[in-house]
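Now for a typical sample entry:
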Amino acid sequence: MSERYDQIVVGGGMSGLAHAWWSARRGERVVVLEAGERVGGVIATAETSGYRYERAATSVPSRARHLLDLLASLPEPPPLVASEDAAERQFLFGRTGLVDVPRSLPSLLTTRLLTSRGKLRILGEVLRGRRRVTGAETLHDFVRRRFGRGVAEAFLRPFTSGIYGASPDRLGAADAFPKLVAMERRRGSVLRALLADRDPSAGKRKVLLPQGGMETIPRAIASALGDRVRLRMPVTRLEPGGRGHGAIVHLADGSALEGDEVTLAIRAPAQQALVAETHPRAADLLSGVTYVPIVVVAVGYPRTQGPSVPAGFGALRGPRSRARVLGATFNAQLSPGVAPTGHELVTCYLGGSEDPEVLYLSDDELRRVVLGDLETALGGTVEPDLFQIWRWSQAIPLFAPGHRARMAEVATDLARSRLRPLGSHATGVSLNDCCRPLAPLRAPLAAGLVRA
């Protein structure tokens, strides 16, 4: 006879761990099945010669409410250190160096990144009112319509390349940034909504860094779950549950578990393979999910062997830059403890929707590209004693126009059998999105909980 659980979670990445933890907190009998030898998915921390560097996400924003609530609920949460000053300054890669990103209205009105006409377009946004758009609108079209082409090119394009690894022309406005579209619908103006919704008590935005690296977050959740997390347990197929709900989960070792509710916290192609036989419509929609590739490169060097890195969070590729690097995080400026004393640590990101070929560059070619871009940006030759490369062929799901509607249809189709799709393609790409508490599919919505 197979073991029975209230909740079976397939996948031990952040989405799966977070959902399992919230379910366990409700008193459910939960098990997490992870095919690999470790939890955390793409979140991983490595240490070499006094450097501590990340293979994906490098920090936590101070306003990531769902993630911070989850950590606070753990019996032994990983300690977080705030880096307030670093969050206040960011840069763009220019043609010959770094350019400050305006962070206030006065700095926006004096920046050279926009023409005088472009600055007037921003101020005039409050007068444009609501506009009904037929069909799915791209994010680039939305921002250009509200704020003008100058803002779309100078600020939006670098931002989406750094966050989504994608051009704003490929992203849906209501898919990548649904809050912006909701602001226009609710207030008739994005600026008016931002001013009306501003919370004076929220304080400055900060960057939070786990003392032991980002991987301490999934490890802490897994530790709290204890033996409910099972490693090296690949799932081979799903069979409808005996009562028509949930599923019997078959494992590679020949065993099977029965779940009243089964959550698939894995990438879209893996979800598609598991539901193809029983839910062909959902499988067809999942087959259309596209991922963009990202190459992550950690560069460390003694300050005596390279140019200084300015205090700040990092830099994104600007509209006039010839850099191939999409963006970089200045890790040692955020937290000096991640590098040996007197050393810099910078994490660079390449690839995305517009440059997938970078995934196939050799290590030597990547070294030339990354060091060349850093040297142009920082103004001096970099001689690293650390150069580590990770290639992610399926790094970030592409939230193209209509993506959220298609994923909602997948969720509705699967929910009839008490199956739930999770993962960044279903919830959103941020760690905070992955940690949102979700109501059980078999019960009415409780206060404060939402359906996926």
Observations:
- The longest helix spans residues 363-378.
- DSSP finds 18 helices and 19 strands in the chain.
- The longest strand covers residues 291-302.
